[in-house]
Amino acid sequence: MEGIAKKFDIKEIREDFPVLHQEINGKPLIYFDNAATTQKPKPVIEALMGYYIGYNSNIHRGIHTLAEKATNAFEESRKAVQKFINADEAEEIIFTYGTTDSINLVAATFGRAFIGKDDEIIISAMEHHSNIVPWQMLCEQKEAKLKIIPINGKGELILEEFEKLLTNRTKLVSVAHVSNALGTINPIDRIISKAHEVGAKVLIDGAQASAHIEVDVKKLKADFYSFSAHKLFGPTGTGILYGKRKLLESIPPYRGGGEMIKEVTFEKTSYNDIPYKFEAGTPNIADVVALKTAIEYVNELGKRNIEVYEHELLQHATSLLSEIPEVKLIGTADNKTSVISFIVEGLHHLDIGMMLDAKGIAVRTGHHCAQPLMNEFGIEGTVRISLSIYNTKEEIDVFVDALKSIISKWK
Ligand code: PLP
Fold first, then answer.
1. What is the DSSP string of 265-290?
2. Which CATH class is domain 45-299?
């Protein structure tokens, strides 16, 4: 991989994240739980404060100056998202409350309109619960069938098996771009083109991709793409659903209420144009506005630089962990982001997580909202470290030493 550009200065980046500069249990915080949520840089926090201090107002309906300012900021954020994922039009960007909400939106609308009895939906064995349960609920309601793409021992999708699952009853394929529990980057370009061959639509769960790798919905030809602002250095409670214009226009609205209508009478309601048709009620204005700043922050660092840096962290951590005989890595795909899951023979993942926390190191333990995946590996859960732009090799060294000392003391 090419080297990192000069502006990717780790010291400067760390300075931007106030939360990192604290002690936990008497030790400097090492935050390795970025797949759960990322920390927020000062400009994002300032954008939030700026909105509330300077121009808090409801959007779209007001004609006064503050309302106009808030509306403009909200719509500028939509354009920033459009560019960030290379969508054709800003109207193809719907603001939701998170990836979970985005997926539920597709299940409730596309599912309502286009999935019928005996139709088939395909997901994969490595999905987050939020990309499993909405489809199970839909299948139950519609008497449709849920099919699962299997994985190999490295935690990669078996594409030949996927192709065998596709039939002319396949209406939707919904898979993660990147697995939250394993870090596997899935070959979604191939999945999308194969699914399109049988006329199925494809939803990509990009929750774990948007902060780490390039996302180009036009190049991918994704029908739907979803992600969460809070995993992209933005605020919680805001998500994105991208959908192709024609598709969004062809599906019914999600929630009913203000903003999503053109005209309401007691006899009949006509619905607004996209994206507003899917944005009933007062949205999460402040957080959407601050999302734009988060995107600008990522753009300034450069996705390519982020990828290169995080790959270095991944390699460093993987090679150190591989040297510990008691550690078994779960998920060793060839193409991965900076997520490492592991178990330690004879030690429970929860105990390891608590002992690491006592040393100021925040990791995630458990099933990572991917219980079926854990079942595939025959385990209950793992310890997961997920690394981001502000993590360092020195932090990884401290973590590995801490893990070794836990293992030697408690095994
Ligand atoms: N999909 C994946 C792959 C995830 O990792 C997560 C969250 O961890 C989600 C979906 C759900 O995201 P949210 O909780 O922001 O809705």
1. -SS-EEEPPTTGGG--SS--HHHHHH
2. alpha beta
